[in-house]
Amino acid sequence: MAKYSRALDDVLVALADPTRRQVIHRLGHGSASVGELARPFPITLPSFMKHLRTLESSGLIRTQKTGRVRTCTLNRDRLDLLNGWLADQRQIWEARTDRLEHLVTPTEDTP
Q: What are the distances in angstroms from CA 28 to CA 75, 79, 100?
């Protein structure tokens, strides 16, 4: 559990906002410029840039500036961190429900 700590906290905080989740969803289809990413959202560009900074500081996206265009790319390694944590949680809960099922399910020996 300690192996995740800060990095996982940053990812979870970044994904807590629907705008940022939509940006991650869009970047799942390929890299995009900031202008392309911001276009569907009814917020100002400075507000949108705050979302991008949060995503970038969490490590979920990488940005690269070429001339006047800043391009964003999804960092799939960071999503793997989240996926690993969720898999661990799923394993824990499945083990618990299996034990509960074993406890409440009558066996052939039960009268």
A: 9, 11, 38
Tokens of 9: 């906290």
pLDDT tens readout for residues 78-104: 999 999 999 999 999 999 998 898 889
Q: What angle do CA 71, 73, 82 make, to 5 degrees?
A: 150
Does the pLDDT at position 109 exceed 80? Answer: no
Enter the pTM of the model.
0.80
Task: List pLDDT tens digits, range 25-49.
Answer: 999 999 999 999 999 999 999 999 9
Residue 61 CB-density burial (10 A; 0-12 exposed, 13-18 middle, 19+ buried): buried
Biggest alpha carbon distance in the chain?
A: 78
Q: Give the whole-angstrom CA distance, residue 94 versus residue 11.
A: 24
Q: Where are the alpha helices (DSSP H) in the chain?
A: 5-15, 18-27, 34-38, 45-58, 76-104
